């Protein structure tokens, strides 16, 4: 029998399929991934060593879909960091269901190292101390990932508030958007506050 012109499996297909599954179901299992690809589970191990490598391929698929490096590190550090935060959030927002898995798996991929290298250089050049830089990146990432999840959350997260027992909260909610603008305004407000706080942490 002649060999098929296009292989049934390759690493890029595996990563893209895994990203779809986790985005839809929130979990990743080898049997589910094999079903999605229409192969036996054992066939996957001809291309990947296991779950950790599949997660790495998911990150690669996400990077291919979205321009997480579409920012200019030669800008003033606050502008560049804001641009990075926005592109990073946009990338994760397209696959918010995968955020819990991707955010808790160690980052060993060279393309991820290259991204962090640019951010680290940006912050060091701005004058932050070496001991501050990873903490600042982690703090900003935590906010970005939470904001990506907020984009797919219901527009109204706090509801049915009795005005008699919580009058201040009710008044606040009266002046809060009840559509997608809530998440966008929350992200803008939080990002502005973080960058202002980062500036205050610059060594004198």
Automatic annotation (TrEMBL):
GO BP terms, alphabetized: negative regulation of DNA-templated transcription; response to antibiotic
UniProt cross-references to InterPro entries, sorted A to Z: Homeodomain-like_sf (IPR009057), HTH-type_TetR-like_transc_reg (IPR050109), HTH_TetR (IPR001647), Repressor_TetR_C (IPR004111), Tet_transcr_reg_TetR (IPR003012), Tet_transcr_reg_TetR-rel_C_sf (IPR036271)
Annotated ranges, domain HTH tetR-type: 8-66
Pfam families registered for this protein in UniProt: TetR_C_1
Keywords: DNA-binding, Repressor, Transcription, Transcription regulation
Entry superkingdom: Bacteria
GO molecular function, one term: DNA-binding transcription factor activity
Statement: the UniProt record of this protein carries the keyword Secreted: no
Keyword Transcription belongs to the record: yes
DNA-binding interval(s): 29-48
Protein name: Tetracycline repressor, C-all-alpha domain protein
Organism of derivation: Streptomyces capitiformicae
């Amino acid at each position: 029998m002649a060999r098929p012109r296009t292989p049934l499996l390759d690493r890029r297909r595996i990563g893209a399929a895994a990203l779809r599954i986790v985005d839809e179901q929130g979990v990743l299992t080898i049997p589910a991934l094999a079903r999605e690809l229409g192969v036996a589970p054992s066939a996957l191990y001809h291309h990947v060593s296991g779950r950790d490598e599949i997660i790495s391929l998911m990150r690669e698929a996400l990077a291919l879909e979205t321009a997480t490096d579409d920012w200019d590190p030669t800008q003033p550090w606050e502008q560049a960091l804001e641009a990075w935060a926005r592109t990073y959030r946009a990338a994760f927002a397209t696959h918010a269901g995968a955020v819990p898995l991707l955010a808790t798996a160690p980052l060993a991929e060279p393309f991820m190292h290259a991204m962090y290298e640019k951010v680290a250089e940006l912050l060091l050049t701005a004058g932050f101390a070496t001991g501050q830089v990873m903490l600042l990146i982690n703090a900003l990432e935590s906010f970005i990932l939470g904001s990506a999840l907020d984009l797919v959350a219901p527009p109204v997260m706090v509801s049915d508030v009795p005005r008699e027992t919580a009058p201040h909260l009710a008044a606040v909610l009266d002046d809060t958007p009840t559509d997608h603008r809530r998440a966008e305004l929350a992200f803008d407000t939080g990002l502005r506050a973080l960058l202002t706080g980062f500036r205050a942490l610059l060594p004198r």
